[in-house]
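Reviewer 2 asked us to include a model.

Predict the structure of this chain.
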Amino acid sequence: MINFVQKIKFFTLFLIVFYLSTNVSFAFTSKAEKMFGQKIMLGLGKDSNFNKVLKYAKKGKIGGIILFERDIKSRLDLLEKTSKIKNLKGIPLFIAVDQEGGYVQRMSARNGFKDYKSAKEISNVNPHNAYIQYKLMATELHFYGININFMPCVDLIIDENSILNKNERAYSSDPDVVSKYAKEAIKAHNENKVITSLKHFPGHGSISGDTHKGFVDVSETWSEIELEPFKKLANLNNLQTVMMAHVFNKNIDENYPASLSKKTTSILREFFDGVIVTDDLDMKAIKDNYNLQDVIVNAINADVDILLFSNYEEDVDLDRIYEIYNNALKNGTIKKEQVEKSFNRIIELKKALY
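Predicted model (C-alpha coordinates):
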Protein backbone atom coordinates (compact mmCIF):
# COMPACT_ATOMS: atom_id res chain seq x y z
CA MET A 1 0.00 0.00 0.00
CA ILE A 2 1.41 3.37 -1.05
CA ASN A 3 1.01 5.86 1.80
CA PHE A 4 0.01 9.49 1.35
CA VAL A 5 3.62 10.84 1.49
CA GLN A 6 4.74 8.36 -1.17
CA LYS A 7 1.80 9.42 -3.34
CA ILE A 8 2.82 13.06 -3.03
CA LYS A 9 6.44 12.23 -3.91
CA PHE A 10 5.33 10.13 -6.89
CA PHE A 11 2.98 12.85 -8.15
CA THR A 12 5.70 15.51 -7.72
CA LEU A 13 8.19 13.38 -9.63
CA PHE A 14 5.60 12.85 -12.36
CA LEU A 15 5.06 16.61 -12.67
CA ILE A 16 8.82 17.25 -12.91
CA VAL A 17 9.30 14.58 -15.59
CA PHE A 18 6.26 15.85 -17.49
CA TYR A 19 7.49 19.45 -17.30
CA LEU A 20 10.99 18.57 -18.49
CA SER A 21 9.78 16.31 -21.29
CA THR A 22 7.28 18.81 -22.64
CA ASN A 23 9.77 21.69 -22.45
CA VAL A 24 12.43 19.63 -24.22
CA SER A 25 9.82 18.87 -26.85
CA PHE A 26 8.87 22.54 -27.16
CA ALA A 27 12.54 23.53 -27.35
CA PHE A 28 13.10 20.99 -30.11
CA THR A 29 10.04 22.15 -32.00
CA SER A 30 11.14 25.76 -31.66
CA LYS A 31 14.61 25.01 -32.98
CA ALA A 32 13.25 22.76 -35.71
CA GLU A 33 10.77 25.41 -36.80
CA LYS A 34 13.44 28.09 -36.70
CA MET A 35 15.54 26.03 -39.10
CA PHE A 36 12.57 25.25 -41.32
CA GLY A 37 11.54 28.91 -41.46
CA GLN A 38 14.81 29.71 -43.18
CA LYS A 39 13.88 27.21 -45.89
CA ILE A 40 10.68 29.02 -46.91
CA MET A 41 10.58 31.86 -49.42
CA LEU A 42 7.15 33.39 -49.93
CA GLY A 43 5.47 35.87 -52.26
CA LEU A 44 3.06 38.52 -51.00
CA GLY A 45 -0.07 36.68 -52.05
CA LYS A 46 -2.79 37.31 -54.58
CA ASP A 47 -3.76 40.53 -52.79
CA SER A 48 -0.12 41.65 -52.57
CA ASN A 49 -0.55 41.69 -48.78
CA PHE A 50 2.83 42.95 -47.62
CA ASN A 51 1.86 43.37 -43.96
CA LYS A 52 0.60 39.81 -43.69
CA VAL A 53 3.85 38.37 -45.03
CA LEU A 54 5.86 40.78 -42.90
CA LYS A 55 4.17 39.29 -39.82
CA TYR A 56 5.31 35.82 -40.92
CA ALA A 57 8.83 37.21 -41.24
CA LYS A 58 8.71 38.78 -37.76
CA LYS A 59 7.77 35.39 -36.30
CA GLY A 60 10.61 33.66 -38.13
CA LYS A 61 8.14 31.64 -40.19
CA ILE A 62 9.90 32.50 -43.46
CA GLY A 63 13.49 33.19 -44.43
CA GLY A 64 12.87 35.12 -47.61
CA ILE A 65 10.37 37.17 -49.60
CA ILE A 66 10.02 37.26 -53.38
CA LEU A 67 8.53 40.33 -55.04
CA PHE A 68 6.68 40.49 -58.35
CA GLU A 69 5.83 43.43 -60.56
CA ARG A 70 2.41 43.91 -58.98
CA ASP A 71 4.11 44.21 -55.56
CA ILE A 72 6.33 47.08 -56.73
CA LYS A 73 4.22 50.19 -57.31
CA SER A 74 7.09 52.63 -57.67
CA ARG A 75 10.70 53.26 -56.70
CA LEU A 76 9.62 54.74 -53.38
CA ASP A 77 7.23 51.87 -52.70
CA LEU A 78 10.02 49.33 -53.22
CA LEU A 79 12.42 51.23 -50.96
CA GLU A 80 9.80 51.41 -48.21
CA LYS A 81 9.11 47.67 -48.45
CA THR A 82 12.74 46.56 -48.47
CA SER A 83 13.60 48.97 -45.64
CA LYS A 84 10.89 47.47 -43.43
CA ILE A 85 12.14 43.97 -44.22
CA LYS A 86 15.74 44.91 -43.44
CA ASN A 87 14.75 46.53 -40.14
CA LEU A 88 13.31 43.30 -38.77
CA LYS A 89 15.16 41.73 -35.85
CA GLY A 90 16.69 38.29 -36.14
CA ILE A 91 18.24 36.53 -39.09
CA PRO A 92 18.19 38.85 -42.15
CA LEU A 93 15.77 37.88 -44.90
CA PHE A 94 16.46 37.16 -48.52
CA ILE A 95 14.67 39.73 -50.69
CA ALA A 96 14.34 38.32 -54.19
CA VAL A 97 13.11 39.21 -57.65
CA ASP A 98 13.26 37.72 -61.15
CA GLN A 99 15.09 40.45 -63.03
CA GLU A 100 16.46 38.78 -66.15
CA GLY A 101 15.79 41.58 -68.62
CA GLY A 102 13.41 41.42 -71.58
CA TYR A 103 10.29 39.34 -71.00
CA VAL A 104 11.05 38.75 -67.31
CA GLN A 105 11.81 41.92 -65.35
CA ARG A 106 9.85 42.87 -62.25
CA MET A 107 11.37 46.36 -62.20
CA SER A 108 10.89 48.01 -65.59
CA ALA A 109 9.60 51.15 -67.30
CA ARG A 110 6.10 49.95 -66.43
CA ASN A 111 6.64 50.72 -62.75
CA GLY A 112 9.16 53.53 -63.00
CA PHE A 113 12.45 51.70 -63.48
CA LYS A 114 14.80 51.03 -66.39
CA ASP A 115 14.23 48.42 -69.11
CA TYR A 116 16.98 45.88 -69.77
CA LYS A 117 17.75 43.73 -72.77
CA SER A 118 16.77 40.07 -72.88
CA ALA A 119 19.34 37.28 -72.75
CA LYS A 120 18.88 36.70 -76.50
CA GLU A 121 19.54 40.39 -77.21
CA ILE A 122 22.53 40.43 -74.88
CA SER A 123 24.11 37.53 -76.76
CA ASN A 124 24.39 39.83 -79.81
CA VAL A 125 26.68 42.33 -78.08
CA ASN A 126 30.24 41.79 -76.91
CA PRO A 127 30.77 40.43 -73.38
CA HIS A 128 32.08 43.76 -72.05
CA ASN A 129 28.87 45.54 -73.09
CA ALA A 130 26.88 42.71 -71.53
CA TYR A 131 28.78 43.29 -68.30
CA ILE A 132 27.94 47.02 -68.43
CA GLN A 133 24.19 46.28 -68.66
CA TYR A 134 24.36 43.75 -65.86
CA LYS A 135 26.40 46.13 -63.74
CA LEU A 136 23.67 48.76 -64.08
CA MET A 137 21.05 46.15 -63.23
CA ALA A 138 22.89 44.84 -60.18
CA THR A 139 23.68 48.34 -58.91
CA GLU A 140 20.00 49.25 -59.12
CA LEU A 141 18.92 46.07 -57.35
CA HIS A 142 21.40 46.63 -54.53
CA PHE A 143 20.35 50.25 -54.10
CA TYR A 144 16.69 49.24 -53.74
CA GLY A 145 17.45 46.52 -51.21
CA ILE A 146 17.20 43.40 -53.38
CA ASN A 147 19.76 40.76 -52.42
CA ILE A 148 18.78 37.85 -54.70
CA ASN A 149 18.18 38.00 -58.43
CA PHE A 150 16.92 34.70 -59.83
CA MET A 151 18.99 34.80 -63.00
CA PRO A 152 20.78 33.99 -65.30
CA CYS A 153 18.98 31.37 -67.35
CA VAL A 154 21.66 28.98 -68.55
CA ASP A 155 19.28 26.68 -70.40
CA LEU A 156 20.45 25.75 -73.89
CA ILE A 157 18.25 26.50 -76.90
CA ILE A 158 17.84 22.94 -78.11
CA ASP A 159 14.22 23.23 -79.21
CA GLU A 160 13.61 26.47 -81.11
CA ASN A 161 9.98 26.28 -79.96
CA SER A 162 10.88 26.10 -76.28
CA ILE A 163 9.10 28.64 -74.11
CA LEU A 164 12.47 30.01 -73.02
CA ASN A 165 13.60 30.65 -76.58
CA LYS A 166 10.26 32.17 -77.62
CA ASN A 167 10.51 34.61 -74.73
CA GLU A 168 14.21 35.28 -75.45
CA ARG A 169 15.20 34.13 -71.97
CA ALA A 170 18.06 31.90 -73.17
CA TYR A 171 21.39 33.06 -74.61
CA SER A 172 22.30 30.36 -77.08
CA SER A 173 22.38 26.71 -78.07
CA ASP A 174 26.15 26.69 -77.48
CA PRO A 175 27.14 26.00 -73.84
CA ASP A 176 30.32 28.04 -74.25
CA VAL A 177 28.36 31.10 -75.41
CA VAL A 178 25.83 30.66 -72.60
CA SER A 179 28.63 30.39 -70.04
CA LYS A 180 30.45 33.43 -71.42
CA TYR A 181 27.48 35.80 -71.09
CA ALA A 182 26.09 34.33 -67.90
CA LYS A 183 29.52 34.77 -66.33
CA GLU A 184 29.32 38.53 -66.95
CA ALA A 185 25.93 38.65 -65.22
CA ILE A 186 27.22 36.70 -62.24
CA LYS A 187 30.34 38.86 -61.94
CA ALA A 188 28.37 42.13 -62.04
CA HIS A 189 25.92 40.96 -59.38
CA ASN A 190 28.65 39.57 -57.16
CA GLU A 191 30.42 42.95 -57.19
CA ASN A 192 27.19 44.51 -55.88
CA LYS A 193 26.50 41.89 -53.22
CA VAL A 194 23.49 40.44 -55.05
CA ILE A 195 23.10 36.67 -55.09
CA THR A 196 22.49 35.03 -58.46
CA SER A 197 20.83 31.74 -59.36
CA LEU A 198 21.66 29.46 -62.26
CA LYS A 199 18.44 28.14 -63.72
CA HIS A 200 16.73 25.87 -64.56
CA PHE A 201 18.61 22.71 -63.52
CA PRO A 202 19.07 20.24 -65.19
CA GLY A 203 17.96 22.20 -68.28
CA HIS A 204 14.65 23.40 -69.69
CA GLY A 205 15.54 24.24 -73.29
CA SER A 206 14.77 20.99 -75.07
CA ILE A 207 10.98 21.05 -74.93
CA SER A 208 8.18 23.46 -75.82
CA GLY A 209 6.09 22.77 -72.71
CA ASP A 210 5.66 25.32 -69.93
CA THR A 211 5.81 24.17 -66.29
CA HIS A 212 3.77 27.23 -65.30
CA LYS A 213 0.84 25.61 -67.11
CA GLY A 214 1.32 21.88 -66.53
CA PHE A 215 3.39 18.71 -66.58
CA VAL A 216 6.49 18.84 -68.81
CA ASP A 217 8.30 15.64 -69.79
CA VAL A 218 11.83 15.96 -71.21
CA SER A 219 12.59 12.24 -71.14
CA GLU A 220 12.95 11.99 -74.92
CA THR A 221 14.65 15.35 -75.52
CA TRP A 222 17.04 16.11 -72.66
CA SER A 223 20.77 15.44 -73.06
CA GLU A 224 23.80 15.74 -70.79
CA ILE A 225 25.20 18.68 -72.73
CA GLU A 226 22.59 20.76 -70.90
CA LEU A 227 24.61 20.31 -67.70
CA GLU A 228 27.72 22.01 -69.08
CA PRO A 229 26.88 25.66 -68.22
CA PHE A 230 25.96 24.63 -64.68
CA LYS A 231 29.26 22.83 -64.24
CA LYS A 232 31.24 25.77 -65.60
CA LEU A 233 29.49 28.45 -63.56
CA ALA A 234 28.30 26.89 -60.30
CA ASN A 235 31.33 27.75 -58.20
CA LEU A 236 32.49 31.14 -59.48
CA ASN A 237 31.89 32.85 -56.13
CA ASN A 238 30.17 32.42 -52.76
CA LEU A 239 27.01 34.33 -53.73
CA GLN A 240 25.51 31.72 -56.00
CA THR A 241 22.54 29.41 -55.89
CA VAL A 242 21.02 26.97 -58.36
CA MET A 243 17.30 26.79 -59.13
CA MET A 244 15.68 23.43 -59.85
CA ALA A 245 13.28 23.06 -62.76
CA HIS A 246 9.99 21.18 -62.51
CA VAL A 247 10.72 19.14 -65.65
CA PHE A 248 10.20 15.38 -65.47
CA ASN A 249 12.77 12.95 -66.86
CA LYS A 250 12.02 9.27 -66.38
CA ASN A 251 15.59 8.40 -67.32
CA ILE A 252 16.76 10.13 -64.13
CA ASP A 253 13.74 9.64 -61.84
CA GLU A 254 10.66 7.60 -62.74
CA ASN A 255 8.51 9.18 -60.05
CA TYR A 256 9.30 12.85 -59.50
CA PRO A 257 10.26 16.01 -61.41
CA ALA A 258 13.68 17.56 -60.86
CA SER A 259 12.61 19.89 -58.04
CA LEU A 260 11.36 16.96 -55.92
CA SER A 261 13.96 14.42 -56.98
CA LYS A 262 16.92 13.28 -54.88
CA LYS A 263 18.26 11.47 -57.95
CA THR A 264 18.37 14.75 -59.86
CA THR A 265 19.86 16.89 -57.09
CA SER A 266 22.49 14.18 -56.57
CA ILE A 267 23.79 15.00 -60.05
CA LEU A 268 24.03 18.65 -59.07
CA ARG A 269 25.64 17.84 -55.70
CA GLU A 270 28.52 16.15 -57.53
CA PHE A 271 29.87 19.61 -58.32
CA PHE A 272 27.88 22.11 -56.22
CA ASP A 273 27.49 22.21 -52.46
CA GLY A 274 25.76 25.58 -52.20
CA VAL A 275 22.13 26.58 -51.75
CA ILE A 276 19.60 24.92 -54.06
CA VAL A 277 16.22 26.59 -54.62
CA THR A 278 13.07 25.15 -56.14
CA ASP A 279 11.36 26.92 -58.96
CA ASP A 280 7.94 28.19 -57.87
CA LEU A 281 6.10 25.32 -56.19
CA ASP A 282 2.80 26.98 -57.03
CA MET A 283 3.29 26.19 -60.73
CA LYS A 284 0.75 23.83 -62.23
CA ALA A 285 3.43 21.24 -63.04
CA ILE A 286 3.57 20.69 -59.27
CA LYS A 287 0.17 21.74 -57.91
CA ASP A 288 -1.84 19.72 -60.44
CA ASN A 289 0.16 16.53 -59.95
CA TYR A 290 1.44 16.33 -56.37
CA ASN A 291 -0.21 17.03 -53.04
CA LEU A 292 1.34 19.50 -50.62
CA GLN A 293 2.62 16.80 -48.27
CA ASP A 294 4.49 15.04 -51.08
CA VAL A 295 5.92 18.36 -52.22
CA ILE A 296 7.26 19.36 -48.78
CA VAL A 297 8.64 15.95 -47.83
CA ASN A 298 10.18 15.16 -51.20
CA ALA A 299 11.75 18.59 -51.67
CA ILE A 300 13.42 18.38 -48.26
CA ASN A 301 14.57 14.81 -48.80
CA ALA A 302 15.89 15.78 -52.22
CA ASP A 303 18.44 18.02 -50.46
CA VAL A 304 16.78 21.18 -51.75
CA ASP A 305 17.48 24.08 -49.40
CA ILE A 306 14.85 26.73 -50.19
CA LEU A 307 11.21 25.98 -51.01
CA LEU A 308 9.82 28.83 -53.08
CA PHE A 309 6.10 29.60 -53.10
CA SER A 310 5.13 32.56 -55.28
CA ASN A 311 1.77 32.73 -53.50
CA TYR A 312 0.69 34.41 -56.72
CA GLU A 313 -2.78 33.10 -57.62
CA GLU A 314 -3.86 31.35 -54.44
CA ASP A 315 -2.62 32.14 -50.94
CA VAL A 316 -0.41 29.43 -49.50
CA ASP A 317 -1.55 27.85 -46.23
CA LEU A 318 1.64 28.35 -44.23
CA ASP A 319 0.15 26.74 -41.11
CA ARG A 320 -0.56 23.59 -43.13
CA ILE A 321 3.02 23.59 -44.45
CA TYR A 322 4.34 23.71 -40.88
CA GLU A 323 1.93 20.99 -39.80
CA ILE A 324 3.22 18.73 -42.56
CA TYR A 325 6.80 19.51 -41.62
CA ASN A 326 6.35 18.87 -37.89
CA ASN A 327 4.47 15.62 -38.48
CA ALA A 328 7.13 14.43 -40.92
CA LEU A 329 9.82 15.16 -38.32
CA LYS A 330 7.91 13.24 -35.65
CA ASN A 331 7.30 10.16 -37.79
CA GLY A 332 10.78 10.16 -39.28
CA THR A 333 9.72 10.81 -42.88
CA ILE A 334 12.27 13.61 -42.87
CA LYS A 335 15.34 13.86 -40.68
CA LYS A 336 16.35 16.77 -38.48
CA GLU A 337 19.92 16.35 -39.76
CA GLN A 338 18.81 17.06 -43.32
CA VAL A 339 17.01 20.25 -42.27
CA GLU A 340 19.99 21.34 -40.21
CA LYS A 341 22.32 20.82 -43.16
CA SER A 342 20.15 23.09 -45.31
CA PHE A 343 19.84 25.63 -42.53
CA ASN A 344 23.63 25.85 -42.25
CA ARG A 345 24.02 26.35 -46.01
CA ILE A 346 21.44 29.15 -45.96
CA ILE A 347 23.08 30.88 -42.99
CA GLU A 348 26.50 30.72 -44.67
CA LEU A 349 25.00 32.31 -47.80
CA LYS A 350 23.43 35.07 -45.73
CA LYS A 351 26.71 35.68 -43.93
CA ALA A 352 28.40 36.14 -47.30
CA LEU A 353 26.04 39.04 -48.01
CA TYR A 354 27.13 41.08 -45.00
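The longest helix spans residues 4-37. The CA atoms of residues 104 and 294 lie 29 Å apart. We have added this to the supplementary material.
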